[in-house]
Amino acid sequence: MDNSRPNASTDHHVNARPTTTIDKLAVLAAAVIAAFSPAQVLGEKLSESAPAYIPADQVNAFLNDRVEINFLALQNFQAIQAKPGAFRPADEKQSDGFGRLRVNLQLKFHITEHITADIDIAEEPNDFGNNGDRDFSFHQDYAGIEFDLFGLLGKARDDADLKLRLGNIGAAPFQFKGFQDGADNQGNALIGNGMTDYATAENGIELSYNRSLGSGTIRGFTVAGHMTTSSFGEAFQEGRGYNFRLQGALEFAGGIKAGLSFFQANQSDQLIFENGIASLAGVTTTNYRFGDGENYNFSASASSERDTHVGVMPGLDQSIVQLNLAYQPSPETSLIFMVGKSADDFTFADDAGNPVPGITYFGVNGVVDPNGTTFDATNVVSGDTSVEYFIFEAQHFLIPEKFYLAARYGEAENTSDLIAQTDNTVERLQVAAGYWFNDRTLLKVEYVEQDEGANSGGQIGAGFDGFTSEISVKF
Fold first, then answer.
1. 64-84: b or e for each residue (b if 16 or more CB lie within 10 Å)?
2. Which of 19-28, 39-48, 253-262 is the most confident on average?
3. What angle do CA 135, 140, 145 make, to 5 degrees?
4. What CATH number is given for 65-474 in this structure?
5. What is the rounded distance in angstroms from the CA atom of residue 230 to the CA atom of residue 292?
6. DSSP letter assigned to residue 172
7. Nearest to 204 by CA among 233, 224, 227, 170
8. 337 vs 125, 291, 388, CA distance in Å?
9. How many CA atoms lie within 13 A of 435 on its CB side?
10. pTM score
11. How far is CA 4 from the centre of its chain?
12. Domain boundaries, the chain
């Protein structure tokens, strides 16, 4: 039976009723109901009972697995003091207490089978804690678009992948170890990162190749390279160059891994010298000159300061070469050793052009004086700067997947040409214990001690020590 209405131009039914306001409203209501019916179905699905707990090895996926969501939160407590002789005396007598809550919202979108986009939105005071620590806004902490090139070309492989990433490129010279970024701390056995981690994210492009070889002495390898600009925002001023990274790693049978990283910055064309001195005002330096924000905080500086790292590099024509070795003799034990050198063609200087061991120094009216007050160097002079360092890290589970002990020892020597080669070493010891309440909740407690020589480039002044802890969730 055909119930369709004839075209108005041919409908001559003498009893046809004129369209009324009620008819129009009925049609509109029907259209609204039809338009919102998918939302109603989705609402019914969301209201259905479902387990609140999802194991950590499963992804929180939505919209037919096209969206993945993770939420991370971390609360820390510290009792840390700077040692006598600190650059800022207020740091020598700090109160213990709780830090600001750190939270991350991580989203991943499967745009097609071979194209994904990700964004990490964070309230991370040790990265974005300026403005008098009153800035409690969420920020884009890391985001990008990733292309599976083999898949896009119709040549997807089970044993290899070739990926192109555009956007924020995260990079560090270390490999095989965990990294801590805000509330994202559960891949790091200890608290915070190393004093020479030189890790950051910048804007650019990255190409990486992964290959699994199965059985044999070499089980697989990875090669990656990137080109970025020295900014997490935008920087287009004259003379601003690019930063480059080339990194590779081999995985051997028996739980052994070896990797090599090379970084090179090219930012010195921005400098304008007068009487042998160049100001850093308005100059974009590489973001990895200090490394990412740490979770050791001091009352005399903003929470986003990187002042627990070695502060030797101006970050202009900075280079880094680092060898990384890892050995996992059993699922419960892992050992990591890293040795490297970072160098720059320029040295921090005071307002009179005198070279200083690091960015922070004692002075009077901006000129070096051991009896003065604290200044941060805003000038550089030509002169080779270098830091030679090594780090050893170990982790062992006393109760598998439940309770572990971990330790990290690092040493960095300021070997710069214009700096006295005495009392020029920074040392840091970290000893920690971790307890997994479940596979998404981790408690870490750590003792940390850092010693800084007068010519080391340490930014606290003489070092610091104390206890700190973190409890974090990821769901």
1. eeeebebebbbbbebebbbbe
2. 253-262
3. 175
4. 2.40.160.10
5. 14
6. -
7. 227
8. 30, 18, 14
9. 6
10. 0.85
11. 63
12. 65-474
